[in-house]
Amino acid sequence: MTVTTSPRTATEGTWALPLLTLVPLAVINLLTELSTPWLAISWILCATAALFIVVGWVSVFRHGMRGVGAWGMCILVHAVWAWQLITIVRH
To answer: What angle do CA 71, 89, 21 make, to 5 degrees?
Structure first.
């Protein structure tokens, strides 16, 4: 029997790095008033998370995505990233 999925398919772990990058950003947004230094740090973290999200999508396009859990994590990462981006833009 032939397996059609690659052993390197995107899993929940593919989306863990962008989510971990967004955690300090969420803490900064919740605990500070986003003064100039914090706002600059927030933009850097948001851009870094966006880069990691792009890397995740490259993995998905090259190797496919496996499982409902991976898609759920993908949606979570995108929702948190969008929330953080909206929060930063509003300041």
So the answer is: 45
HSE at residue 16, side-chain half, CA atoms within 13 A, is: 6
Q: Of 86, 60, 87, which is closest to residue 73 (Cα–Cα)?
A: 60
Copy the structure tokens of residue 32: 């500070």
Q: What angle do CA 47, 53, 59 make, to 5 degrees?
A: 145
Q: 3-class SS at 84?
A: helix
* pLDDT tens digit sequence for 16-72: 999 999 999 889 888 888 788 998 999 999 999 999 999 999 989 988 888 888 899
Q: State how far the Cα of 28 lies from the Cα of 32, in Å rounded to an integer.
A: 6
Considering the entire predicted model, what is its pTM? 0.84
